[in-house]
Amino acid sequence: MIRYAVRRLLEAVPILIGIVTLIFLLLHLAPGDPATAYFNPNVSPEIIDRMRENLGLDRPLHEQYLRWLRSFFTGDFGYSFSQHRPVADVIRDALPNTLLLSAVSLVLIFVVGCSVGAVQAVRQYSALDNVTTFVSLFVYSMPGFWLGLMLILAFSSPAMPEFLRLPISGVTSVDYEFMGPIERMVDRVRHLVLPSFALGIASAAGVARYMRGSLLEVIGQDYIRTARAKGLSEWRVILKHALRNALIPIVSLLGLYLPLLFGGSVVIEVVFSWPGMGRALYNAILARDYPVVMAASFLFGVLVLGANLLADLSYAVIDPRIRTD
Amino acid sequence: MTSPLLQVRDLRTYFATDRGEARAVDGISFDVREGETVALVGESGCGKSVTALSILRLLPEPPGRLLAGSSVQLRGEELTSAAESRLREVRGGEISMIFQEPMTSLNPVFTIGQQVSEAIREHEAMSTGAGERRGAAARRVAIEWLDRVGIPDPEDRYGYYPHQLSGGMRQRVMIAMALSTRPALLIADEPTTALDVTVQRQILELLASLQTELGTAVLLITHDLGVVAQVADRVMVMYAGQIVEEASAEALFRAPQHPYTEGLLQAVPDLEERRERLAEIPGNVPRATAWPTGCRFRPRCPYAWSRCRDVPDLRRSGPAEGSSARCWLTDEPERRSSGSGFGLRSPDGRREGVGES
Fold first, then answer.
1. Fewest CB within 10 A of the end CB: N or C in chain A?
2. pLDDT class for B277, splitting at 50, 70, 90?
3. The CA-based dihedral angle spanning residues B90, B92, B93, B98, taken in that order and rounded to the nearest 10 degrees
4. What pLDDT is stored for residue B314 in this prediction?
């Protein structure tokens, strides 16, 4: 299994090089460059040209690319054109926020998704099943950014009772510095509620649909009848014998939903002013801040590949049939 | 007279289907006495598996339902009205069951040892030694049983997953799981059908030797008359949801009373008596939503006459004690010799005999 993991990691290297190369080319194909951000009647073309020279944008494309690639693999992510600080600093500030938001959403997706799906399967065709099926289809078909905006409207509305109102932007309140440790924790959690909900709920609905189908299929299997014939309680039959088998296909969804999660974080972070990688990437693209765009895309690539590897490895953990001897 | 181990009376299990109500099991009665082997024989779709599942109430309800008036008694205790908690004690405890498909009847994500010891723990079928934990005791008993059913190196195999074993080995695991709780009755639903012929024989021998050792009664469900001849004391032949003939194994093979049994026996190849072609029973098993009126075998029966429009009941028949058949021929045996039977019949239409291909 360790050999398998190492092999997968090695395979990831050419994929990542491919990703950054593609993004590099796409960025340079797009019109405009960082200097255009300074276009202004008061700035002479000479100054713009000198800026291009300073940033190395006057060099031939392949030279820029190779220079960037070289420094990249020595751990030097370069210098942000628009924020005037090292890209490494930008990432250090933004990455933890994105990881926190994604992790909370991921837990929400799988805990809510699997529980709802399991309850639906066990109570197939009941009123509960029908209602939750309707709700999950409704939620599933709702775009995340629109849901985010609606949540902001609802939870910041004066009509909402005071105790139900939730923060709609940022990771902490303005008076965070003056809070005690417990208050700080509560404040952080309250800030997480709406963005993680908006980010994860559609995927949770999707997972619930998969889980329902998967568990229903497992419940019809011969070995479930065997478990019942042993005299196990219905609880044990479902929770021990059925659930573990039903989770096998769900685990592979992990590799499918994580990229969606990181992609969704770009939109949700902008909507909720969440200072994470997604928002940093969004702003960097608008400012043609090449080093930040490149670094952020690279990191998202790493996260997605890592997530897929994780999904495949957990697959082997949960299903003995694909463990290699 | 003491009550038999298992007494089934007028068992009716119906299913709701799109085509209407399927009367899968339609009023069957039989007894299984302590320690004996009773075979329930019939074609696919005759209701024999449903009978087995109904005894333990393992059928999904709905769509299935047991009709009022059905009775299943275990040593005089009614199971059809028993509480779920009591049924759980019976399942795997007093009555165990093994199934046709050893490939799919074991849970793929647990080791075979875990699955055997789970049954043992569930029914407390072990005694813990001094200072021994429950889990360890169950493990020890499970390994003993794996050894008993002929799994080599059981200590090591305890940690194997089902996919690492062959079909025959898996069926041995199923047998270990079923018998480790020392049940009074084992229901074996086509236990050898999915296995190779050589493995079939080994499994049957294993079942027979464990049965003698433990004194377990066996209700063997099969469509294979060869299997029946090897192991059964008594045979019940099922057709269209009903028992059509019941007799000792010996009497049944020597002189079948019901035309259906006769057809079944003639469809089995016989090495000593070389025949040009095997006889076949014309037609198909009717659908459980629409059994034929009168005698249910009438449309396929070579002897059928006007009286068969009336429903025959199960009545004493033939020379042997305890034999009975659901057929009007028991009243008018002379019709049997005048009828054409199965063997001499020219096969209807294009289907040619087995010998030519």
1. C
2. low
3. 110
4. 80
Angstrom distance (rounded) from CA A292 to CA B193:
66
CB of A221 within 8 Å of any CB in chain B? yes
Q: Which of A104-118, B124-138, B303-317 has the lowest mean pLDDT?
A: B124-138
Residue type, position B15, single letter: F
**d(Cα B54, Cα A313) in Å, to the nearest integer?**
42
| Contact yes or no for A262/A303 (Cβ under 8 A) | yes
> Is residue B78 within 8 Å of B71, Cβ to Cβ?
yes
Q: What is the distance in angstroms between the Cα of A144 and the nearest Cα belonging to chain B?
A: 37
Q: Map residue B187 onto helix, strand or coil.
A: strand
Q: What's the helix, strand, coil split of chain A in %, to 5?
A: 80, 0, 20
Written as one string, the DSSP assignment of A188-216 is: HHHHHHHHHHHHHHHHHHHHHHHHHHHHH
Alpha helices in A272-289 (DSSP H): 277-286
3-class DSSP state of B16 = strand
What mean pLDDT is predicted for residues B89-104? 88
Give Rg (Cα) of chain A.
24
Chain B nearest-CA distance from A6, in A, is 26
Contact of A270 with A61, CB cutoff 8 Å: no
| pLDDT: which is higher, A307 or B271 | A307
CB contact under 8 A, A229 and B96: yes
**Distance separating alpha carbons of residues A116 and A122, to the nearest angstrom:** 10
CA angle A100, A102, A105 (to 5 degrees): 110
Hunting for tokens 């695991």 — which residue is that? B173
Which of A232, A233, A245 faces B108 most closely, judged by CB atoms?
A: A245
The H or E element containing residue A92 is helix A87-122
Which of B107, B121, B181 to probe the A interface (max A CBs under 10 A)?
Answer: B107
At B284, which amino acid appears?
Answer: N
CB distance A281 to A296 below 8 Å = yes
Cα end-to-end distance, chain B, whole Å: 56
Asked if A255 contacts A307 with a C-beta cutoff of 8 angstroms, the reply is yes
User: pLDDT at position B357, please?
Assistant: 32
A230, A251, A314, A324, best to mutate vs chain B, most B CBs in 10 Å: A230
Task: Enter the DSSP assignment of A238.
Answer: I
Does residue A191 belong to the interface with chain B, where contact is any CB pair within 8 Å? no
Measured CA to CA, the distance from residue A292 to residue A280 in angstroms comes to 8
**Element containing residue B185 per DSSP (H, E):** strand B185-189
Angle between helices A87-122 and A243-271 (to 10 degrees): 140
Q: Are B118 and A222 a contacting pair at CB < 8 A?
A: no
Instruction: Sketch out chain A's domains with CATH numbers.
Output: 2-30+95-283+295-322 (1.10.3720.10)
A·B CB contacts under 8 A = 68
Torsion of CA B55, B56, B62, B68, to 10 degrees: 40
Question: What is the set of domains in chain B, with CATH numbers?
Answer: 6-232 (3.40.50.300), 239-356 (3.40.50.300)
Task: pLDDT band for B241, please (50, 70, 90 cuts).
Answer: confident
Mean pLDDT of chain A: 86
What is the per-residue pLDDT for B346? Answer: 42
On whether the CB atoms of residues A113 and A206 are closer than 8 A, the answer is yes
Q: What is the mean pLDDT of residues A25-36?
A: 78
